[in-house]
């Protein structure tokens, strides 16, 4: 099973960087391109004054050195980014056209640019996997290029038209997938051209001289066409489909055929795992998965069961998903998939990426069958200490959380109230320590500090360990080599601490005896943003970095201020925290803390209420309607979670339960959110009859209430 893990930390870092750079000017992300190696992602930024800049980020979210300030695009017309392995080509269509090829790893990419200019604007430009520049243009077009750039010119046909869909190359050959049209008849062809290219003296000689591997008289019609070529061990296969179509055409050395899909095509690309396809069902979901080469060769119809690692990427809305905003790495492990919006500017219309949705995913296969978070190379079952996560496939949030914990060790779950943040944390972290931060919570409660105790009828102060320190000591002790562990099954905490102190002293002195984690330990911090986090964590914030934990390359062992005892964080201690986005305090988190935590957003999920009806009122539609009002006026951070309504169907009287939830939980929030704006609320949403023009709740009896809710759900 493949897990689609949204890389929210990376996207958060990219968006935060761009906000800092361009937030004062107003900007959109006009395009993004994932590099085929999965290491980088290129971002084209468009400002409100229509100036544009290109940045390159690592897929971890950090800007690549030399690209921090952005490279200006000196062209107001279309700009197309063409990623290679370690270079980025940018084709701009101003005047006669220009391609600028930049090295990705460079302290000053602008100074090392390789420009290619033309005497007439080409029809098509491609940058191949081996970083050759393929140009499809009129036979008479000339180009001017530095000697370091290999340019291959494909002439337009002398008689008829050709449309190139994909280009791939090897050391000695170039492969083209194209549609050829002549005398109103079309054919799809896959051709091979030896390199260096044979000399031709006219476009007719070129098209007569190439080797056609396969062709088909059935050609996709209409819409944006999506094609790709796969080369391996001397064999070649190509596929072509149309956005919104329900079939793809496959051509190769074995012949040509048409294959039906289980939905409307959104995107396709070959990877080492097979053909990656995204399809959508109108009114349903976006589904993606890999189709093996064996299935492609033998089947004429692809069913959902033929997808390997099928995943759901959200609801299918044809108008906001476009193959232009999609890409997958060659190894099939990194997916870029965006949703678009549109904007008019200067008399022209252009599409841009909506920044509030996910658009970078890791497609991970589980490394541990049980879903345990044990470090690779250990076997908790062998030690009798493993525990399983139940229902991983039931909730995508658990899958995301497990992957992020394995990688970053600590995660903050954030989102509107009622989305199940605490429930998800406790479901993932079995037998966890649980604390809630608040204004009076302190370092002394969490780590260590002086506490009064009564001794010989006197009050004296002694250093007491807090909940986090006690948990860390138990986790380190559980990981100690046998030579440091004390005998006995039921060890007291003080005995464990003495063994841990002895180990840390030798560790600091240079003894590198490896630790052996046997179990996972968790602490869940609820409402982490309500406490003074810097005050509570103190010097421990440094230890949160995964590379500073015990056993890591740059492990850090500190001396605590009260007890003067040594302390470190082990690799088998995981932190899950929650926070409400409606508090508007996420932006106020300490930057150092943000860097050390991964973030997982939980949004309201009305689909959890699908087919749940109370006296003719569909709760999925009700929650969607309420949240559309709130989001329109206040923003998504203030929406209501599905948890408000989950218990209603199982109540003895669902009608009365819905009445109580709506009047005593939902409407008080509306009074807070729309204070002083009641006339605006009622004028925009005439179906909302529960608050009058002065902001007072209108109390109805049960039957009147149900009728009013029906009108609210049914109103447009």
Describe this entry's structure for a reader.
The chain has 716 residues and is α+β, with helices and mostly antiparallel strands. Among the domains are: 157-332, no CATH class; 436-601, no CATH class; 606-714, no CATH class. The strands form twelve sheets. The protein has a five-stranded antiparallel beta sheet with strand order 6-7-8-9-12, with no helix packed on it. Strands 32-35-38-31-39 form a five-stranded parallel beta sheet, sandwiched between helices. Strand 7 and strand 8 form a beta hairpin. The two termini are 40 Å apart. GO terms for molecular function: ATP binding; ATP hydrolysis activity; endonuclease activity. This is Restriction endonuclease. Keywords: Endonuclease, Hydrolase, Nuclease.
Structural Rg: 30 Å
Shape: globular
**Fraction of residues in helix:** 10-25%
Query: How far is the N terminus from the C terminus?
Result: 40 Å
**Arithmetic mean pLDDT:** 84
Oligomeric state of the chains in view: single chain
Question: For the largest beta sheet, what order do the strands appear in spatially?
Answer: 6-7-8-9-12
User: Count of helical segments?
Assistant: 15
Number of strands: 41
* Beta-strand content bin: 25-35%
Low-confidence stretches: 366-396
Look at the helices and sheets and give the structural class. Answer: alpha+beta
Largest sheet: 5 strands, antiparallel
């Amino acid at each position: 099973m493949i897990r689609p893990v949204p890389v929210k930390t990376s996207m958060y870092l990219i968006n935060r960087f761009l906000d800092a750079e361009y937030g004062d000017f107003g900007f959109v992300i006009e395009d993004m391109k994932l590099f085929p190696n999965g290491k980088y992602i290129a971002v084209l930024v468009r400002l409100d004054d229509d100036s544009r800049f290109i940045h390159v980020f690592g897929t971890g979210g950090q800007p690549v050195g030399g690209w921090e300030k952005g490279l200006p695009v000196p062209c107001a017309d279309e700009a197309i980014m063409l990623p290679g392995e370690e270079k980025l080509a940018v084709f701009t269509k101003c005047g006669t056209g220009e391609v600028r090829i930049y090295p990705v790893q460079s302290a000053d990419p602008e100074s090392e640019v390789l420009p290619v200019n033309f005497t007439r604007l080409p029809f098509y430009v491609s940058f191949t996997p081996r970083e050759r520049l393929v140009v499809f243009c009129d036979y008479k077009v000339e180009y001017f290029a530095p000697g370091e750039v290999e340019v291959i010119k494909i002439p337009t046909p002398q008689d008829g038209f050709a449309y190139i869909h994909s280009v791939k190359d090897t050391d000695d050959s170039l492969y083209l997938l194209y549609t050829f049209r002549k005398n109103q008849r079309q054919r799809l062809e896959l051709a091979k051209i030896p390199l260096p290219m044979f000399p031709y003296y006219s476009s007719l000689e070129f098209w007569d001289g190439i080797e056609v591997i396969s062709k088909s008289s059935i050609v996709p019609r209409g819409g944006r066409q999506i094609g790709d070529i796969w080369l391996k061990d001397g064999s070649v296969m190509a596929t072509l489909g149309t956005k919104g179509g329900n079939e793809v055409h496959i051509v190769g050395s074995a012949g040509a055929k048409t294959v039906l899909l289980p939905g409307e095509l959104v995107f396709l690309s070959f990877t080492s795992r097979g053909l990656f396809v995204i399809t959508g069902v109108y009114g349903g979901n976006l589904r993606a998965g890999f189709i093996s080469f064996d299935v492609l060769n033998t089947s004429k119809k692809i069913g959902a069961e033929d997808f390997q690692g099928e995943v759901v990427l959200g609801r299918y809305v044809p108008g906001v998903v476009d193959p232009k905003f999609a890409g997958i790495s060659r190894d099939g492990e990194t997916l870029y998939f965006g949703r678009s919006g549109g904007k008019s500017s200067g008399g022209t219309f252009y599409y841009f990426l909506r920044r509030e949705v996910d658009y970078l995913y890791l497609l991970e296969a589980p490394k541990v069958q049980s879903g345990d978070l044990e470090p690779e190379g250990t076997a908790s079952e062998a030690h009798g200490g493993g525990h399983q996560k139940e229902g991983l496939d039931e909730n995508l949030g658990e899958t995301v959380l497990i992957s992020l914990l394995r990688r970053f060790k600590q995660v903050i779950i954030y989102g509107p109230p009622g989305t199940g943040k605490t429930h998800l944390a406790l479901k993932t972290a079995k037998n966890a320590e649980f604390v809630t931060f608040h204004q009076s919570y302190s370092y002394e409660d969490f780590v260590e500090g002086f506490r009064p105790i009564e001794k010989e009828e006197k009050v004296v102060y002694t250093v007491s360990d807090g909940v986090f320190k006690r948990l860390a000591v138990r986790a380190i002790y559980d990981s100690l080599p046998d030579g440091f562990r004390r005998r006995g099954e039921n060890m007291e905490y003080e005995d464990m601490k003495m063994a841990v102190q002895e180990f840390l002293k030798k560790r600091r002195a240079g003894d590198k005896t490896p630790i052996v984690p046997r179990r996972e330990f968790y602490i869940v911090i609820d409402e982490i943003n309500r406490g003074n986090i810097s005050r509570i964590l103190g010097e421990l914030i440094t230890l949160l970095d995964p590379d500073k934990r015990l056993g890591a390359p740059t492990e850090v062992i500190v001396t605590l201020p009260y007890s003067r005892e040594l302390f470190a964080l082990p690799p088998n201690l995981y932190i899950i925290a929650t926070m409400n986005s409606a508090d508007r305090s996420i932006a106020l988190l300490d930057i150092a803390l943000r860097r050390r935590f991964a973030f997982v957003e939980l949004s309201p999920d009305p689909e959890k209420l699908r087919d749940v009806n109370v006296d003719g009122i569909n709760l999925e539609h009700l929650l969607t309607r309420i949240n559309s009002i709130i989001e329109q006026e206040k923003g998504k951070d203030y929406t209501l979670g599905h948890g408000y309504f989950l218990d209603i169907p199982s109540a003895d009287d669902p009608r009365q339960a819905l009445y109580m939830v709506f009047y005593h939980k939902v409407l008080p929030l509306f009074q807070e959110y729309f204070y002083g704006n009641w006339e605006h609320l009622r004028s925009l949403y005439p179906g909302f009859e529960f608050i009058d023009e002065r902001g007072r709740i209108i109390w109805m009896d049960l039957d009147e209430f149900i009728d009013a809710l029906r009108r609210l759900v049914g109103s447009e």
